[in-house]
Design goal:
The protein is mostly helical. It is 78% helix and 0% strand. It contains 20 helices and no strands. The longest helix has 36 residues.
């Protein structure tokens, strides 16, 4: 057995990490260079390598690119319309006083599915601050509970771009990815909230210093100015664009299971199953969601304003689309060169379950370069061609393992680390890590247990 492809892959991964960590080369270009090295060392000719990279890039974005675009458009409308605040206010009213941290965590859990986590925290943090002041609650508890709810579903539940990209690379059904992500996220959020409550004991006299990034203040000031004099939408209208696509995708997934039973075999062309197969396709479901968001949450906005808002969302998603496509290119090279098959034979003999391979890779990449999205996409790109060759491996579990591994120890090179700590006015490095690095690691550890349980169940 030739070990040249494996050595070549090791070199490609080293080059990828070195370029991202030590040079000014963007992660997109670094992943393409790594894919080229893996292809050439794996036995592909130069022309074949370029062809496979192009094919892998296109096929990955072909399956999930439109869905990512629609998801961020819908999220941007929810962001600027005040829907996020309405969801938060409603949960606070329902849960009552002294349970504000749970209300904020649940809000984060829901809101971060369509809205980028950094933006969502900037928008909702003033509410946490007001609750801490008026309800005499510890601000650390409320802020960390909110951020914890936001970060977990941001990592695990489509149509957030990261987990959506992972689902595309592994070839996992998006409905199943949504359901698994929402279930696995619950104990992670629970663990963070309990830790957040302990922070009130650790820092009982915490008073935020009035510091922070001017950029963050400007973002929030601009947001508040945009929303000035606009009443908040109702809770039903606020949550409808999130619930409708998830419901349609779920119904389609359940119908798929029903059609596999003996009683319903051969009924694929029945009008009911055809209707929901169409409506439950992620592209159609999210298109409906965007239309609902535009016409219910921004009913009086002009055509130009609506288009501007949605295009703002697409600008933020552009680089994620490119990185996801590059991840698909790297995965395609490993498959077509045969390197994935060679590694699969070795991985199958390891004394650990193979679904932990993407978890371990995502954890390492997260520590090295900080971005959870890049970590999970990289882990999926490297591990999917390997794991897919191993019999009896559930790719849904492997995909969730990649997303959970990317939660590990958010610190200096993680943008959300700075957003949370600067908004809360925390200067001390040790306290910054207590406030954000430890909670993300708690979620990572609970997520690992959840993945192992899911592996046993499925």
């Amino acid at each position: 057995m030739s070990y040249i492809p494996i050595i070549g892959l090791a070199v490609a991964i080293f080059v990828l990490i070195f370029l991202v960590l030590r040079t000014r080369v963007h992660v997109l270009l670094a992943m393409l260079i790594a894919a080229a090295i893996a292809g050439l060392s794996g036995g592909l000719t130069a022309v074949e390598t370029v062809g496979v990279i192009t094919k892998g890039f296109g096929s990955t974005l072909g399956s999930i690119g439109i869905v990512i675009g629609l998801g961020v458009m819908m999220g941007r409308v929810l962001e600027v319309s005040g829907a996020a605040e309405q969801i938060a206010y409603s949960f606070i009213r329902w849960l009552g006083k002294k349970r504000e941290e749970w209300a904020l965590a649940i809000t984060g859990y829901i809101v971060s599915i369509p809205i980028f986590v950094d933006s969502a925290f900037v928008i909702l943090y003033p509410l946490a601050k007001a609750l801490a002041k008026n309800g005499k609650r510890n601000l650390l508890t409320l802020g960390v509970a909110l951020a914890g709810g936001l970060v977990v579903t941001h990592h695990t539940v489509p149509p957030t771009p990261g987990p959506l990209g992972v689902a595309g690379i592994f070839g996992v059904d998006i409905g199943a990815m949504i359901l698994a992500g929402m279930v696995l996220a619950i104990p992670c959020v629970f663990g963070i909230v309990l830790y957040a409550k302990w922070l009130a004991v650790k820092y009982p006299e915490f008073i935020p210093e009035e510091i922070g990034s001017e950029d963050l203040k400007e973002i929030h000031a601009r947001y508040m100015e945009d929303k000035a004099n606009k009443p908040l939408p109702s809770l039903l209208l606020s949550i409808l664009p999130i619930v409708v696509p998830i419901l349609l995708i779920f119904i389609n997934a359940i119908n798929g299971l029903i059609l596999k039973t003996e009683s319903y075999q051969g009924m694929e062309n029945n009008w009911y199953f055809q209707t929901f197969e169409f409506l439950g396709a992620p592209i159609i479901a999210l298109s409906i969601s965007v239309l609902i968001a535009v016409y219910t949450l921004m009913p009086k906005a002009s055509k130009e304003e609506v288009i501007d808002r949605m295009e703002e969302g697409l600008q933020t998603a552009g680089i994620i689309l490119l990185v996801t496509g590059a991840g698909g290119a790297l995965g395609a090279v490993l498959r077509d060169s045969g390197t994935g098959n060679i590694l699969a034979e070795h991985v199958a003999s390891l004394p650990i379950t193979p679904v932990l391979i993407p978890f371990i890779i995502a954890t390492l990449v997260r520590v090295i370069q900080g971005s959870g999205t890049v970590a999970m996409i990289t882990a999926a790109s490297i591990s999917a061609p390997i794991i897919s060759q191993i019999p009896d491996i559930n790719l849904l579990v492997a995909a969730q393992a990649a997303t959970m591994g990317a939660l590990f120890f958010g610190y200096f090179n993680d943008s959300l680390y700075w957003v949370v700590n600067r908004m809360m006015g925390i200067k001390d490095v040790k306290q910054q890590m207590m406030v954000w690095s430890i909670p993300t690691t708690i979620a990572w550890a609970i997520g690992l247990l959840g993945v192992l349980v899911l592996d046993v169940v499925l």
